[in-house]
Amino acid sequence: MTRKVVDARANEKGNITHVRIEGNQRFTSVEKAMSMADRGELSNAHSVRPTSGTKPHLRTNPDAKGNNNLDYWAGDN
């Protein structure tokens, strides 16, 4: 069963730190959500693990909408 990320929180630097997954009232750490995405448990997000340069992070799957991105949900738009 896959679930969706439906909300996000950012720290004072604007980095996404937590996401809320549908069906949950509490937020989940990005690290845990990345593991869930790696296992195919999230239908609308994936983890990005670059080999160099930037740190690993979670992203929503690309589409034409802007109102379903982590930065938008975290109020960092």
Index terms:
single chain; 77 residues; alpha+beta; three-stranded antiparallel sheet; two-stranded antiparallel ribbon; 2 helices; 5 strands; 17% helix
Question: Can you walk me through this structure?
Answer:
The strands form two sheets. A three-stranded antiparallel sheet has the order 1-2-3. Strands 4-5 form a two-stranded antiparallel ribbon. Strand 2 (about 15-20) and strand 3 (about 25-30) form a beta hairpin. It contains two helices and five strands; from the N terminus they run βββαββα. It is an alpha+beta fold and about 80 residues long. It is globular and about 35 Å long. The model has no long low-confidence stretch (mean pLDDT about 90).
Q: Which regions are unreliable across 5 or more consecutive residues at pLDDT < 50?
A: none
Number of strands: 5
Helix content: 10-25%
Q: Give, in order, the helices and strands.
A: EEEHEEH
Give the strand line-up of the largest sheet.
1-2-3
Overall geometry comes to globular
Beta-strand content estimate: 25-35%
Euclidean distance between termini CA atoms: 31 Å
Mean pLDDT: 92
Derived from helix and strand composition plus strand pairing, the structural class reads alpha+beta
**Main sheet specs:** 3 strands, antiparallel
Domains counted in the coordinates: how many? 1
| Radius of gyration of CA atoms, rounded to a whole number | 12 Å
In DSSP terms (H or I, runs of 4 or more residues), the helix count works out at 2
